[in-house]
C-alpha cells in the first residue's frame, strides 16, 4: 500500500501503484463502491477549499438515466455478504485478510425532514449518574453538528471544538462535498448556528479543520493521550447520527492499532491506524468525539463496518453493527495543529511500495508486507531495505498485510525512528529507520 493511501505499502510517492483491490467472498478483485485543553491559538490559516467528494454527508442528486445493474451474485455460497452503509466508499480491514468492509460514516440526506434541535446534556440526578453520564456532561459542549451543502447534495456530520475562538476538527469526507460554490454551517451544543470556512484538509488521514465566523467563548475539548487507551476501556461516542445533535452512545474499546482502509477508488483510499469500538456509530457521527470515562477525547469517529441488509445486488445497507472506528487523538491533534498553523499537514513516509505476502498454504492469509519497490534516497533506502524483503513487524507491532504496514507507519510522526523486523529469504533481521515526511 502506498503512503498516499493506496493499497500497496506505505512509502510510495504520489502517483505510485494503486491499491490492492477489495475482494468478493470468492476472491474476485473489486473496488467497493459507495464512509488537556486545546493547545491551538494561532491566527487563521488560509488553504484551498476541498474538492468535490462523491457522497460526503448526504445523497447527491441522482443523475437521470437507468438504474445501475445489480451486482453479480457471489459464487461462494454460505458467507455473510458484507456491504456499505450510506454513500461512501468501503474497504477491507487489514488489507487482503478479508475481515470486512468499512464505510465512512455520513448522514444520508432526507433521513429526517428538519434537523433536530440541539439539546444540552445536563446531569439531573447525580446519585444515579453513570460513567457515561459524566463523560457526556463533560464533553458534549465541545461537540458540534456540521451542515454541508452544494448545488447537487446536502448532508450533515459532527465536529469537535479545538479553540474558544472557533477552530473545529472534523473528517475530510464530511466537508469535502461543499467545495466550490458550496456552504458549511456549524451548530454548537447550545443551538447557535455559525457560518464556517475550511481552513485546510488532509484526505490521507480523513481530517479537516474549520473556522467558525465570529465565534467566541466556545468550549474546547480536552484531549487524552491515545497511547494510554486499553481494550475494555469505557468509550462514549458523541455526535449527530442522522442529524440528531448531541446524541450519546456508550460501549468499550474493542481493539487498538486496528488497520482500516476506506475509499471507493485508487485515488481516494485512506488508511488509518484506528481505535475500534462497539459504541453505536451511525451516519452523521463522522467527525464527532469518542471520549473516555473522564470525558476526554480519545478519538475522532470516522468509519463503521456494515452488513448488506437487502437481497443480492441491493444497495440497502445496515447501520451500526457494533464495529466502529475512530482516528486516535494523538494523530488527530498533531494533524489538526499543523492545519491550523499552515493550512496543510504532513505524515510519516517510509518510501516503499508493497503488497501483502500470502501464506503458501492459504492465499487468504497474510504473512507480512512484501516490498515491491524502494524509492531512491528515501528512509527505506537509507536503512538498506530491498525489493523482495518482507516486513513482519514495526517495533513490537506485528505486520501481516500491506495495509497494516501503512497504518503502523502513519501512526508515527515524521522524523521518528522505528525498528522494522524484515524477512529476507530464510533469514530475519531488524533495521532502524528514521521516517521521512510527505504531505
Automatic annotation (TrEMBL):
The chain positions of domain PDZ read 339-426
Q: Which residues form a coiled coil?
A: none
Q: List, alphabetically, the SUPFAM superfamilies matched.
A: PDZ domain-like (SSF50156), Trypsin-like serine proteases (SSF50494)
Q: Name one GO molecular function term.
A: serine-type endopeptidase activity
Q: Where is the composition biased (Polar residues)?
A: 430-439
An example GO biological process term is: proteolysis
Q: What InterPro entries does the record tag this protein with? A: Chloro_Bact_Ser_Proteases, PDZ, PDZ_sf, Peptidase_S1_PA, Peptidase_S1_PA_chymotrypsin, Peptidase_S1C
| Extent of Low complexity compositional bias | 1-12, 27-39
Which domain of life, per UniProt? Answer: Bacteria
Keywords carried by this UniProt record: Hydrolase, Membrane, Protease, Transmembrane, Transmembrane helix
* Segments for region (Disordered): 1-74, 411-439
Q: Where are the transmembrane segments?
A: 82-105
Recorded family membership:
Belongs to the peptidase S1C family.
Q: What protein name applies here?
A: Putative serine protease PepD
Amino acid at each position: 500500500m502506498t503512503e498516499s493511501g493506496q493499497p500497496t505499502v506505505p512509502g510510495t510517492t504520489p502517483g505510485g501503484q494503486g491499491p490492492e483491490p477489495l475482494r468478493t467472498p470468492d476472491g474476485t478483485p473489486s473496488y467497493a463502491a459507495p464512509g488537556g485543553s486545546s493547545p491551538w491559538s494561532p491566527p487563521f490559516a488560509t488553504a484551498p477549499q476541498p474538492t468535490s467528494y462523491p457522497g460526503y454527508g448526504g445523497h447527491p442528486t441522482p443523475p437521470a438515466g437507468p438504474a445501475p445493474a445489480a451486482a453479480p451474485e457471489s459464487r461462494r455460497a454460505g458467507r455473510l455478504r458484507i456491504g456499505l452503509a450510506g454513500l461512501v466508499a468501503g474497504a477491507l480491514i487489514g488489507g487482503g485478510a478479508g475481515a470486512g468492509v468499512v464505510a465512512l460514516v455520513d448522514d444520508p440526506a432526507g433521513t429526517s425532514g428538519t434537523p433536530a434541535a440541539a439539546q444540552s446534556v445536563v446531569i439531573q440526578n447525580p446519585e444515579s449518574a453513570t460513567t457515561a453520564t459524566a463523560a457526556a456532561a463533560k464533553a458534549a459542549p465541545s461537540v458540534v453538528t456540521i451542515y454541508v451543502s452544494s448545488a447537487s447534495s446536502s448532508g450533515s456530520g459532527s465536529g469537535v471544538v479545538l479553540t474558544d475562538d472557533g477552530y473545529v476538527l472534523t473528517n475530510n469526507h464530511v466537508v469535502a462535498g461543499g467545495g466550490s460554490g458550496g456552504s458549511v454551517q456549524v451548530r454548537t451544543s447550545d443551538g447557535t448556528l455559525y457560518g464556517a470556512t475550511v481552513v485546510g484538509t488532509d484526505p490521507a488521514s480523513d481530517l479537516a479543520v474549520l473556522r467558525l465566523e465570529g465565534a467566541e467563548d466556545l468550549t474546547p475539548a480536552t484531549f487524552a493521550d491515545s497511547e494510554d487507551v486499553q481494550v475494555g476501556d469505557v468509550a462514549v461516542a458523541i455526535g449527530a447520527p442522522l442529524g440528531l445533535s448531541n446524541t450519546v452512545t456508550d460501549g468499550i474499546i474493542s481493539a487498538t492499532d486496528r488497520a482500516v482502509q476506506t475509499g471507493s477508488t485508487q485515488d481516494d483510499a485512506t488508511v488509518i491506524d484506528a481505535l475500534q469500538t462497539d459504541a453505536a456509530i451511525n451516519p452523521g457521527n463522522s467527525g464527532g468525539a469518542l471520549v473516555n470515562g473522564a470525558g476526554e477525547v480519545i478519538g475522532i469517529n470516522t468509519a463503521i463496518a456494515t452488513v448488506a441488509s437487502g437481497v443480492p445486488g441491493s444497495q440497502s445497507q445496515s447501520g451500526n453493527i457494533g464495529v466502529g472506528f475512530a482516528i486516535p487523538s494523538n494523530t488527530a491533534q498533531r494533524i489538526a495543529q499543523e492545519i491550523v498553523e499552515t493550512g496543510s499537514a504532513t505524515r510519516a513516509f517510509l518510501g516503499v511500495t508493497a503488497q501483502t505476502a500470502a501464506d503458501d498454504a492459504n492465499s487468504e492469509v497474510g504473512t507480512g508486507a512484501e516490498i515491491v519497490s524502494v524509492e531512491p534516497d528515501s528512509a527505506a533506502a537509507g536503512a538498506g531495505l530491498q525489493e523482495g524483503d518482507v516486513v513482519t513487524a514495526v517495533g513490537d507491532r506485528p505486520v501481516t498485510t500491506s495495509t497494516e504496514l501503512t497504518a503502523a507507519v502513519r501512526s508515527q510522526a515524521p522524523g521518528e525512528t522505528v525498528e522494522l523486523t524484515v524477512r529476507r529469504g530464510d533469514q530475519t533481521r531488524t533495521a532502524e529507520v528514521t521516517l521521512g515526511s510527505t504531505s
